[in-house]
Amino acid sequence: MAEKQHLNGAYYGPSIPPPSSRSYHRPGRGDGCGCLGCCCSCICDCILGLICKLICTVVVIIGIAVFLFWLIVRPNEVKVHVTDASLTRFNYTNNTLRYNLAFNMTIRNSNKRLGIYYDNIEARALYQDARFDSDDLTPFYQSHKTTNYLNHTFQGQQVLVLGSSETSEFNKEKSDGVYNVDVKLYLKIRFKLGLFKTGKFKPKVKCELKVPLKTNGTAFEPTKCDWSY
To answer: Which domain of life is it from (predicted)?
Structure first.
């Protein structure tokens, strides 16, 4: 009975020790690499650095090569002039333009060391920014410090729809006997330096002409054309 009373009393088990102050860090998934992850990062940085240095080196080499090429060759712009142009016919009726346009042109290569291959020459005639004729001219090679002469005639008729303001401008030019006509050249050329030949370039030549009717008796003024790439 005494034993039973002893059991009914409050019973306290052994005290629970306090939690340890030492903290434990659970390793994450990314920490498994350890030194390997650090090495990978260093390798990537080294590769990127080498690529940047390689690109900079290539750019510098190309820049030096271009500068030396310019220093040795001293390329000059090709000079184009229309020395003569005339219209024997330029009538516009019923949205149709009937024309006969002839012109003479000089192309001057003033470079001392560069030759030029004119592989393709397309000549276009335009009025009020509208093309009314085009032809392919004969390809040729132009040596350095030389002048070549081109001549061509655009002849025929072409449907050309002009607005009211453009028609009014045509009538004004008709009364003056002088027409604003553009001749454009679309080129495919290559440069030659010694045995070396470049790839193809596609410059354009634009000639803004004031062409008198031949019956008008007005002389044509030679015109310099614009060369652009």
So the answer is: Eukaryota
